[in-house]
Design brief:
Oligomer: single chain
CATH architecture of the largest domain: 3-Layer(aba) Sandwich
Bound molecules: 2'-monophosphoadenosine-5'-diphosphate
Helix content: 25-40%
Order of helices and strands: EHEHEHEHEEHEHEHEEEHEHHH
Distance between the termini: 33 Å
Number of helices: 11
Strand order of the largest sheet: 2-1-3-5-6-4
Strand content: 15-25%
Shape: globular
Number of strands: 12
Length: 272
């Protein structure tokens, strides 16, 4: 029997935590399989994807900067990947066909369900900060979970307006980002602000109800200044590491045949 191979395709790819994550699961469940980092230049992506099934690959994750190109190169695209406009999980059929999916929206919501079980998506509006690729996945997740109203705010107004038109959500000027906090049941940071080496996100959460949930897709550091401020105010907070871990679950299950669990031990292994 051939040992199934999977990997993460990026450029650069050395920083990716996915090999540690999948490697931990393969060992934990005693499965035959390998998961490797694959540094692939943009010009080589199409050839690489066509060659991979013949080399024994059953699937791959895709990271920056190839997520949009991988979607365009796929033979079959899930509805979720189409809406997000990017692929992060590819599965190769026995016939070599490439199926593209995006599990970031699933990962985002699974993280909240695991770590903020008291939060009801239908319980009130959400404010999303940022309008990049991560914001697209978060909006899809919030819409599918039944969040009644979504507000989007971004430093570059045109990007927020374009996303708002595409997804039918509301916008708020970046300089007014605190204005609707009293009505919000959920606040999501999808910007890179607060990430190690980046400026902090400047926002005063004083008027945000203590019943609101605050989550950050940033996970380095785990406790961003945003989450520290929210916690001090009594809000439920969820860090971004769980999204990274949960988004990997559907791919691992498809490729290696076992649905893996996201545990504290896995968090520790990925952070080590
Ligand atoms: P990703 O695909 O990971 O979401 P991205 O497309 O580069 O990454 O988006 C990064 C987000 O962080 C954007 O919303 C960006 O705002 P702009 O659209 O105005 O660039 C936001 N961001 C990055 N640095 C920022 C800063 N100093 N102040 C405000 N927003 C910032």
């Amino acid at each position: 029997m051939k040992i199934p191979l999977a990997g993460v395709i990026g450029c650069p790819v050395g920083h990716s935590r996915s090999p540690i994550l999948h490697g931990t699961w393969l060992r934990q469940y005693g499965l035959a399989g390998h998961y490797v980092p694959l540094h692939v230049e943009a010009d080589d992506l199409a050839d690489m994807l066509r060659a991979m099934p013949r080399m024994g690959f059953v699937g791959a994750n895709v990271t920056v900067p190839h997520k949009e190109a991988a979607l365009a190169l796929a033979d079959d695209v899930t509805e979720t990947a189409r809406r997000i406009g990017a692929a992060n999980t590819l599965t190769f059929g026995a016939d070599g066909r490439i199926q593209a999916d995006n599990t970031d929206a699933y990962g985002f919501m699974a993280n909240l369900r695991q770590n903020a079980p008291g939060w009801q998506p239908s319980g009130g509006p959400a404010l999303v900060l940022g309008a990049g690729g991560a914001a697209r996945a978060v909006i899809v997740a919030l819409q599918d979970a039944g969040v009644p109203q979504i507000y989007l705010t971004n430093r570059t107004t045109a990007r927020a307006d374009a996303l708002a038109a595409e997804f039918g959500v509301n916008t708020l000027p970046w300089q007014d980002r605190e204005r609707l906090l009293p009505q919000m049941a959920c606040l999501v940071n999808t910007t890179s602000l607060g990430m190690r080496g980046q400026p902090d996100l400047e926002i005063d959460l004083t008027t945000l109800p203590a019943s609101a949930l605050v989550t950050d897709i940033v996970y380095a550091p785990l406790k961003t200044p945003l989450l520290a401020q929210a916690r001090a105010q009594g809000c439920a907070v969820v860090d971004g590491l769980g999204m990274l871990l949960h988004q990997a679950v559907p791919g691992f299950e498809r490729w290696f045949g076992t649905r893996p669990e996201v545990t504290d031990a896995l968090r520790a292994a990925v952070l080590a």
